[in-house]
Amino acid sequence: MARTNELRLITRVTQMYYLEGLKQAQISAILNISQATISRLLKRAVDENIVRITINVPRGTFPDLETGLRERFGLKEAIVAECGEDREESILSAIGDAAAHFLSTTLNDREVIGISSWSASLLRMVDSLPPLKRVKAARVVQILGGMGNPSVQVHATHLTTRLAQLTGAQPQLLSAPGVASSIEARRALLDDSFVQATMDEFRDVSLALVGIGAVEPSRMLATSGNVFTPEELQELKDSGAEGDICLRFFAADGTPVRTPLDDRVISISLDELKGADRVVGIAGGARKDRAIKAALLGGYVDILITDKFTAGRLLGEPAGT
Amino acid sequence: MARTNELRLITRVTQMYYLEGLKQAQISAILNISQATISRLLKRAVDENIVRITINVPRGTFPDLETGLRERFGLKEAIVAECGEDREESILSAIGDAAAHFLSTTLNDREVIGISSWSASLLRMVDSLPPLKRVKAARVVQILGGMGNPSVQVHATHLTTRLAQLTGAQPQLLSAPGVASSIEARRALLDDSFVQATMDEFRDVSLALVGIGAVEPSRMLATSGNVFTPEELQELKDSGAEGDICLRFFAADGTPVRTPLDDRVISISLDELKGADRVVGIAGGARKDRAIKAALLGGYVDILITDKFTAGRLLGEPAGT
DNA sequence: TGGCGGACTGAATTTTTATTCATTACTGGA
DNA sequence: TCCAGTAATGAATAAAAATTCAGTCCGCCA
User: Fold this and answer.
1) Contact, B42 vs B13, CB < 8 A?
2) CA distance linking residue A253 with residue A270, whole number of Å
3) Are strands B112-115 and B139-142 parallel, antiparallel or unpaired?
4) CA–CA dist A170, A160 (Å, integer)
5) Are the Cβ atoms of A8 and B33 closer than 8 angstroms?
6) Is the pLDDT of residue B2 over 80?
7) Closest to A33 (Cβ–Cβ): which among B32, B51, B105?
8) In A, residues 272-301, which contact B (CB 8 Å cutoff)?
9) In angstroms, rounded to a whole number, what is the distance separating the alpha carbons of residues A309 and A316?
10) Phi first, then psi: what are they for B53, rounded to 5°?
11) Which whole-number Å values give the CA distances from A268 to A148, A198, B42, in the listed order?
12) Interface check A307 vs B, CB under 8 A
């Protein structure tokens, strides 16, 4: 009885608040009940399940997969993009677009963006990036050298400068190959003051945008001048390397894999990467499943941007529609 | 595409806010989006129907009937009580209880309560009134005289004093019969300074609690000493009187019905009544349908407390379960 | 017949949210 | 090409809501 009266009042308050859109103060005035009590009644309405708030998931968004990824891999955020078909091209388009949107909404001035210079996903992202509304970002730092092949060098440079341009930032190029021909060659390159200046910036990177590579010749790697010889690749595989970020390799469980190659790579180190506020991994496609999983397990990535098919596989679930 | 990205973000924000219970500022920090924008995204979530808020109506409450009554009759509030069966006794119990709860939640100090002294509903209300939690109300004013029959006089007095006691207020009794035997008798009674003092308070009443009477001998009227003779009742009927509040009569369409009887009644007038901040009508039962409807049409009541059966009939709808 | 703990309350205050404001960029038309 | 109008943003602020606080009233137990 008394309980019913109580419930009636709560229901009425709930109705006024949520349906009629009245403010608590207005309700307070109408019912001659203090605003504090109205607030408390509304809280009880939630507790007693008189108001029920449901989220109507729009088509093309996958909060469940995202939550799954966040929880399973301890990610800060996960973005799962809608994607027509489970093929490289379609996926690149989807995650590039998603990454572009992410970037455009989340950037704040004084952001120092680090970008790994060669990655098909990042390329797509930059291509999808709308002329950025508001002035954004302070600097864009290239955190991985280009390729020995001059044509790809240009490619990497383009990526960095374009992003800088679009974000109104200062580009900071790393004019060096991603992989030097020898330890000595690397040392020599690091002597260059411009190279040093850029590498000094690695620690200032607040937002790192990185691809995640699988250990196997990808199309791009293949066409980009055979960074590694088949023997070197084999060596990596033998060491248990499953994937890489900026040519820094790690095993299936995420532990770093150190090989002599490390000493020839010119890029941000995995440790330096962890110093960034946010590391955004942008990758998808069945070919990369194991590499992505490894990267997630290693905790190298705070935010993952991928497609629904890959997300589904990472969670061992079927992808949504 | 861009739209999907947008929707994904809104969905994510909605999820964080409503499901995870994060504050906008926290979301803002996590997503690197300003709090203002988070607020705007949440508003869009409502607009775009991504959050859906539904009210789960508890058993025994009838928001639809209440809303119907409010809208149909322009009431400030309507309270419809659950009620086992459509019989006098059951209804009295239901609305008395509801009225008691209403009173206990809505009273504020400095309230001057006017109470029409004889009404079965009000009697029930006072009986149901729990020893009032907090000190409440300033004064309780009797706004209708008692009955000629001394036993009922006591009754009326009891009602007023009890209510005053329960609300910690000062009782202001109207020591006079509700109906004087003649115009002259009334005039004489009004000469009494106590009576005058009380009647002067009528204009200060902030909350009036009134029953609504049907024009026909009710059980109580019958036993309370035949206030009116059968002839007088017939006269009222002939004048079109359909109901009364404090023995002030009105027709089916709510217009006041003036008869010579008026000059013998000692109670607040309908005009004075309208001066009160809130007039609460407490009534139910098929016998009173027409009277209640008339009172509502006349706008004499701001707040109606009734039972689900009566409410349903007033709206010409079947009552709920 | 106190006295203690718990439950409630409204006023005051703090916290949270919505909105205003100034700025910027972009649009579409002359 | 230049300009008026629209849209969108973050910082600042106003508005709204939640919570703290102090006080009261219980009921319960000694």
Assistant:
1) yes
2) 15
3) parallel
4) 10
5) no
6) no
7) B105
8) 278
9) 10
10) -110, 115
11) 18, 10, 38
12) no
DSSP-derived 3-state class of residue B71: helix
The 10s digit of each residue's pLDDT in B124-159 is: 888 888 766 666 767 899 998 876 566 666 677 888
- Amino acid A1: pLDDT: 60
Kindly determine whether residue B8 and residue A79, on different chains, have CB atoms separated by under 8 Å.
Answer: yes
Using C1' positions and the CA of B40, the closest nucleotide is: C18
**Alpha carbon separation from B262 to A151, B58, B173, B203 (Å, rounded):** 106, 45, 21, 19
A 59-98 → B contacts, CB under 8 A:
60-61, 63, 66-67, 76-77, 79, 82, 97-98
Q: Is A14 on the interface with B (CB under 8 A)?
A: yes
**Which residue is nearest nucleotide D18, judged by alpha carbon to C1' distance?**
A39
CA gyration radius, chain B: 25
Is A247 in a helix, a strand, or coil?
coil
**Residue A56 touches partner B, C-beta closer than 8 Å:** yes
Which residue is associated with the tokens 């941007």? A305
* C-alpha span between A178 and B52 (Å, rounded): 51
Q: In chain A, whose CA is at the least distance from the CA of B76?
A: A30
Contact assessment for residue B202 and residue B222, using Cβ atoms and an 8 Å cutoff: no
How does pLDDT run across A110-124, given as a tens digit for each residue? 789 999 877 888 888
pLDDT at A217: 57
Residue with tokens 């203002």, as numbered in its chain: B36
Q: Does the CB of B54 have a partner CB in chain A at under 8 Å?
A: yes
**With contact defined as beta carbons under 8 Å apart, do A75 and A301 qualify?**
yes
Distance from the A99 Cα atom to the nearest Cα atom in chain B, whole angstroms: 9
Does the pLDDT of residue B220 top 60, yes or no? no
pLDDT-based confidence at A176, cuts 50/70/90? confident
- Residue A312 CA to residue A68 CA, distance in Å, equals 9
Backbone φ and ψ of B111, nearest 5°: -75, 135
The verdict on a CB contact (< 8 Å) between B32 and A106 is yes
* Distance in angstroms: CA A157, C1' D11: 36
**What pLDDT is attached to residue B147?**
64
Residue type, A307: D
Q: Is the Cα dihedral B38, A162, A92, A130 positive or negative?
A: positive
B57 touching chain A per CB within 8 A: yes
Chain B, nearest residue to A37 by Cα? B105
Contact A308/A83 with Cβ under 8 angstroms?
A: yes
Beta bridge partners, B81, equal B307
According to DSSP, the residues that pair with A305 across neighbouring strands are A79, A282
**Burial, B131: exposed, middle or buried (Cβ in 10 Å; 0-12, 13-18, 19+)?**
exposed
Residue ranges of alpha helices (H) inside B167-238 are 183-191, 193-201, 219-223, 230-238
Determine whether the interchain pair B56/A52 forms a contact, defined as Cβ–Cβ distance below 8 Å.
Answer: yes
